[in-house]
Design brief:
The complex is a heterodimer of chains A (about 110) and B (about 120). Chain A contains no helices and eleven strands. Chain A has strands spanning about 5, 10-15, 20-25, 30-35, 45-50, 55-60, 60-65, 70-75, 85-90, 100, 105-110. In chain A, strands 2, 4, 5, 9, 10 and 11 form a six-stranded mixed sheet that branches. A five-stranded antiparallel sheet of chain A has the order 1-3-8-7-6, with no helix packed on it. In chain A, β6 (about 55-60) and β7 form a beta hairpin. The mean pLDDT of chain B is about 90. The radius of gyration of chain B is 13 Å and the shape is globular. Chain B is about 0% helix and about 50% strand. Chain B has strands spanning about 5, 10-15, 20-25, 30-35, 45-50, 55, 65-70, 75-80, 90-95, 105, 110-115. With about 120 residues, chain B is mainly beta. Classes of the chains: A mainly beta (about 110), B mainly beta (about 120). At the A-B interface, β4, β5, β9 and β10 of A face β5 and β10 of B.
Chain lengths: ~110, ~120
Amino acid sequence: TQLLEQSPQFLSIQEGENLTVYCNSSSVFSSLQWYRQEPGEGPVLLVTVVTGGEVKKLKRLTFQFGDARKDSSLHITAAQPGDTGLYLCAGHQTGANNLFFGTGTRLTVIP
Amino acid sequence: DTGVSQDPRHKITKRGQNVTFRCDPISEHNRLYWYRQTLGQGPEFLTYFQNEAQLEKSRLLSDRFSAERPKGSFSTLEIQRTEQGDSAMYLCASSQTGGWNTEAFFGQGTRLTVV
């Protein structure tokens, strides 16, 4: 059983389109992180959100943490081929040492 | 390069053989984590060290798996009597004390194939 479910699992879009990736759980997290992973490489941290309702922007990427700290979304505006990769959400629960990763969303942006 | 380094990058082994992977974290990081990632899935937590102490182990870490961090610097992950189900990417990450609100850096991983 996955603690964090991501949707969609696969997404293929044309360059210039917008997209949203969702990360959902029935559990509360003290913080939630988004990573991007390219083939053959380790995940690279994009952002950390810690406050319910928090919104963070990183250029064309907008991250939101749900009010109840159980879910998050990643919105990409005007996607570019360089955005192609595996997007992973990961949550940290209070008192736990490990980070629970979501199932991942594989994004392909077609030029 | 001062990032997290893992060695080897790729390992092919026959079923039943033992394998050992090494992780060199970022030098000032006292926390070190091992994760396993299978194709199409997100990474799954295996174990965590703070300095040389192994503070947490996942139930995924069967008796055939052992991890060490003898001097609080580099770490090794050994798998004994490998099985085909052990085929995966093994990822190491490190961070400074402060929990996961502190950025964790991942290595490039070791891809294990058991034939």
